[in-house]
Amino acid sequence: MAADPVAFARDLLRCPSVTPAEGGALSYLADRLKSAGFAVERVTFSEPGTDDVENLYARIGTGRPNLVFAGHTDVVAPGDEARWTHGPFAGDIDNGVLYGRGAVDMKGAIACQLAAALDHLAANGGRPKGSISFLITGDEESIAVNGTVKLLAWAAARGEAFDHCILGEPSNHDDLGDMIKIGRRGSLNGTLIVEGRQGHVAYPNLADNPVRRIVAIMSAMMAEPLDSGSAHFDPSNLEFTSVDVGNKTVNVIPAEARGRFNIRFNDVRSRDALKAEVEARAHAGAGGGRFRIDWEPSNADAFVTTPGPFVELVADAVAEVTGRRPKLSTTGGTSDARFIRNYCPVLEFGLVNRTMHGIDERVATADLVALTAIYRRILDRYFA
Ligand SMILES: [Zn+2]
């Protein structure tokens, strides 16, 4: 009998696993995987000042290639539960639609990965021709320090090697089959700090107004596009998200002005080269005036999995099941793929992301069935 992804998804949605709570979700997955013959490891990671978080690594087979399904069972908080049509952890199905926090981001996809793996094994004597692994964290939605990044290092230290990875993040915007993410932009945060000299607003010659200078510097930083994009990426973009002087008084020129900004960047420049470019533009805008930029540490560099046989295999499976040729994209925010790509080629394909993190997050049960068929096709071809 075929595994039922809708039942798996429903059971997982009933586990209240808001980060960092495990909520029973990893235990549920561990039980199903163990029954199918997977060797399952549960690992808890800690870091001073953060919550301990549980993670899971499971593998069946000892040979290569090792195809990894990656994902997270933690979810963001449901917000005001009274505003949900169906309880966020009830797992209700209404008119062919399954409701619940994590339905698309991303317990639904994990249910499909699980069902596809069990079906593939059942059809192939219970063992893959190489190995199938699950790399599942409980720490993705929050600060992501006790999750995938540590789980990968832990697995590598045990001698685990990965050949390809499919991360089940919701990659489609409108319909299943729209989009495969083959990379992600990098993300960098900085603060522009301009110091002046406080004084009376009626005597500006006795003061040094940092507002004038910060406006000029910000204009210079934003004036021209940072680049014109590359083969797989849109142009890098710098956005100021806040400008502050903290001044509550109308007749005082403030002593300091600050502007916070974020850059989503592509693979045209390295992170350091990008910082140098932004600082050069700021210097030009400052016209010799003083300023500084404080850069926050970042673990999100741009990366791309160059299209080739693996990407084609997945795109073909998507097209055959959905009738849509997926766009290969690097848009959107960061994801755990930024850590996985240091170990093996990774792409992201999951459900439709329209309701993720929202009230009434939901998935059509037909999408769960179709995504399972896609993952199954990928497994069958990969190990053919
Ligand atoms: Zn997610």
Description:
With 384 residues, the chain is α+β, with helices and mostly antiparallel strands. It contains 9 helices and 19 strands. It has helices spanning 5-13, 25-35, 107-123, 148-157, 210-223, 271-286, 309-322, 337-340, 365-382, and strands at residues 39-45, 53-60, 66-72, 93-94, 97-99, 131-137, 164-167, 179-181, 183-184, 186-195, 199-200, 237-244, 252-253, 256-265, 292-295, 303-304, 327-329, 346-348, 362-364. Strand 1 (39-45) and strand 2 form a beta hairpin. The two termini are 22 Å apart. The model has no long low-confidence stretch (mean pLDDT 96). The structure holds zinc ion (ZN). Zinc ion (ZN) binds at residues 72, 105-106, 140, 169.
Which ligands does the model contain, each kind named once? zinc ion
As laid out across the biggest beta sheet, the strand order is: 1-2-6-3-7-18
Largest sheet entry: 6 strands, mixed
Class from secondary-structure proportions: alpha+beta
Beta fraction:
15-25%
| Separate helix tally | 9
Low-confidence stretches: none
Distance between the termini: 22 Å
Gross morphology: elongated
